[in-house]
Write a structure and sequence with these properties.
Elements: E1 3-5, E2 12-14, E3 16-19, H1 27-33, H2 38-50, E4 55-57, H3 66-74, E5 83-88, H4 103-117, E6 122-127, H5 136-148, E7 152-158, H6 162-175, E8 182-186, H7 198-205, E9 208-212, H8 236-239, H9 248-265, H10 269-278, E10 283-288, H11 293-300, H12 309-319, H13 327-330
Parallel strand pairs: 3-4, 3-10, 4-5, 5-6, 6-7, 7-8, 8-9, 9-10
Antiparallel strand pairs: 1-2
Helix pairs in contact: 2-3, 2-11, 3-4, 4-5, 9-12
Length: 341
């Protein structure tokens, strides 16, 4: 397993991380992803560690905290062998303060996560979304306190826009607060918006991408085919409407290209989609998920080899879209504003 620096930090992470969205199975959304119990989670963690995958990602809202609890049980007795990343910001209770990035909520959320995970520190603590109602200074000073208390070691964000992240980095630099080194972001062959602004920002400011939903919300598993119904077991039956939208013809054009590359390389469609991401600038780690051992072993096969330049070009061409303004305009002035890829 290859390890990379996470952004402009000394922290090294495996290029594949394991996402625990399938742990717990509470609620309509997360039960559609999976229902992994403690016994199965222990087995999946065993397989990950044997492959050199040591980083496990969770969040307080995954199955109302059950995902963190299952993960905590699965790693019991081997905390020193794993890296834990988790997230907080979204509503986690009925109290008016059980939401956001206020000092009140972040301290409570961090303490609750530590208890569920059965640990006294979190390696990477990320804000799950931007809180426009709380001053950035309050949020960052709270994270600074949590770092100084030894409860968290590194900080990151998720689902921020470019100006959210850049403003936060500027405030951190001004006051000497911890800088965000990670941006947990949606990025896939059928979701390349990250490249327009967040990737150039990541290059310039040293923020590493922690990629979520690298298979395009379950659309690049190799099971979807033009003109065919959804497979019987697919989270898309329940979650397609809340995931990132994708035009049908565009989707199947990308799938066609993936099928061609799969035939030429002998690799599976999801392995190719994951390997493509690992060749992109700023990508530090890609979060993979799995309902079972078979899916996990399949995804682990995405590392240890590299797509050829010709195959990457084919996938790039099939997945290319004209970006929104001002990014399409900037593409016309590459001499002074070169693209990151």
């Amino acid at each position: 397993m290859e390890y990379r620096q996470l952004g402009a930090s000394g922290f090294r992470v495996p290029v594949l991380s394991f996402g625990t969205g399938t742990f717990g199975g509470k609620g309509e959304l997360f039960s559609a992803w999976g229902n992994t119990d403690v016994a199965e989670a222990k087995r999946l963690v065993d397989i990950c560690l044997d492959a050199g995958l040591t980083m496990f990602d969770s969040a307080d809202i995954y199955s109302d905290g059950a995902a963190e609890s299952v993960l905590g049980e699965a790693i019991k007795g081997r905390r020193d062998r794993v890296l834990i990343s988790t997230k907080a910001t979204f509503r986690s209770g009925q109290d008016p303060n059980d939401v956001g990035s206020s000092r009140y909520h972040l301290i409570n959320a961090c303490d609750a996560a530590l208890k569920r995970l059965g640990t006294d520190y979190i390696d990477l603590f990320q804000l799950h979304g931007f809180d426009a109602m709380t001053p950035v200074e309050e949020t960052l000073s709270t994270l600074d306190d949590l770092v100084r208390a030894g409860k968290i070691r590194y900080v990151g964000v998720s689902n921020f826009s470019g100006w959210h992240l850049m403003k936060s980095l500027a405030v951190a630099e001004r006051y000497g607060y911890p800088r965000y080194i990670a941006n947990q972001t949606y990025y896939s062959l059928i979701g390349r918006d990250y490249e327009w602004e967040l990737m150039p920002l990541g290059i310039d400011q040293g923020v590493g991408a922690v990629v979520w939903s690298p298979l395009g919300w379950g659309r690049l598993t190799g099971k979807l085919r033009r003109g065919a119904p959804l497979p019987a077991q697919s989270r898309l039956h329940k979650t397609a409407d809340i995931g990132p939208p994708v035009a049908e013809e565009y989707l199947y054009g990308v799938i066609d290209a993936l099928d061609e590359v799969a035939a030429e390389t002998g690799k599976s469609v999801p392995q190719i989609a994951l390997n493509w991401l690992l060749q992109r600038p700023t990508v530090s780690t890609v979060v993979i998920g799995a309902r079972n051992e078979e899916q996990l072993r399949q995804n682990l096969g995405a590392v240890g080899w590299t797509l050829s330049n010709e195959h990457i070009a084919k996938l790039d061409a099939a997945s290319n879209l004209t970006p929104a303004y001002p990014y399409w305009h900037q593409r016309g002035f590459g001499e002074r504003n070169p693209p990151p890829v």
